[in-house]
Amino acid sequence: MTDFLPEALRQPFKGILFDLDGTLIDSEELHYVAWKQALLDYGYDMDSIGEPVPYQGNFRKMYTDIAAKLRLPEDTFEQVYQRKVEITLATPATEISVVEGIISFLEFLKDQRVPMGIVTNSEKDYVEHVLDGFGFREYFDQVVHADHVVLPKPAPDGYTYGASLLDLPTQDVLAFENTDVGITAARAAGLKVIAIRSTDWLGLSTYADAHLAIDHFGDSALDDLMFIGQSE
Question: How confident is the model at residue 232 (pLDDT cuts 50, 70, 90)?
Fold first, then answer.
């Protein structure tokens, strides 16, 4: 039954594109803590800014703005940024949780032969680290990361490219996102969007533009979604 779904989601979808951080894995805080530690390693205290982090979805943009507030010289910023990357990549996958219900949902979609991909603003090395650490490679046909597009989310480029890699028109693809930045990107590309709310630990998103907002992939609303898998 699809009676409990918004009208926009009562269509059969032929592919799915997932955001990575905060959607597949609960890692938003990991990036924040790694950046904070990297700054401390170079003698800067992020807490001295005295205001909330103003961005989601584009970590480098967020870090650039924080660095500007701390008046980091450009060469120091690049060193701090690389240190942050080192800290992130050194974090074992066992210290990061997957979002509730995601593995079962991915297994279901795999059994249905629904093409799946990832669209993320994160850099290639980190994405590879996550794919290997969580055994995600078997599920995803395509991955779009920061090196693939000039304009990151909230621009639609990543989702437009991701749908093209699945060889599907964007209107046949469903996106899962956890931030307003990502939702804006997916909607601008013409995708329908379901938001995952439970990983927004700073409370920065409203999810107003998502077609549906749920807390995790075990939500019964997903049982009503319809998919058309690839033929043998």
Answer: low
User: Domain limits of the chain?
Assistant: 7-27+97-227, 29-93
Q: What would the two tokens of residue 204 be?
A: 């920065």
- Stretch among 59-63, 136-140, 165-169, 216-220 having the lowest mean pLDDT: 59-63
The single-letter DSSP state of residue 229 is P
Residues whose CB is less than 8 angstroms from the CB of residue 203 and which lie 6 or more positions away in sequence, other chains included: none
DSSP string, 108-132: HHHHTT--EEEE-SS-HHHHHHHHH
CA distance 76 to 42: 8
> CA 97 to CA 114: how far, in whole Å?
24
Q: Is 93 helix (H, G, I), strand (E, B) or coil?
A: helix
User: Token digits for 168?
Assistant: 């599907």
Is CATH 3.40.190.150 the right assignment for the domain spanning 7-27+97-227?
A: no
Mean pLDDT taken over the chain? 90
Q: Following CA atoms 48, 49, 52, 56 in sequence, which dihedral angle do they give, to the nearest 10 degrees?
A: -110
Instruction: Quote the CA–CA distance of 165 and 140 in Å, as a whole number.
Output: 11
Within 10 A of 183 (CB to CB), how many other CB atoms are there? 29
The model's pTM is 0.89
To 10 degrees, what angle do helices 74-89 and 28-41 make? 130
In this predicted structure, the answer to whether residue 55 has a pLDDT above a threshold of 70 is: no
Cβ atoms of 74 and 68 closer than 8 Å? no
Burial of 112 (C-beta count, 10 Å sphere; 0-12/13-18/19+): exposed
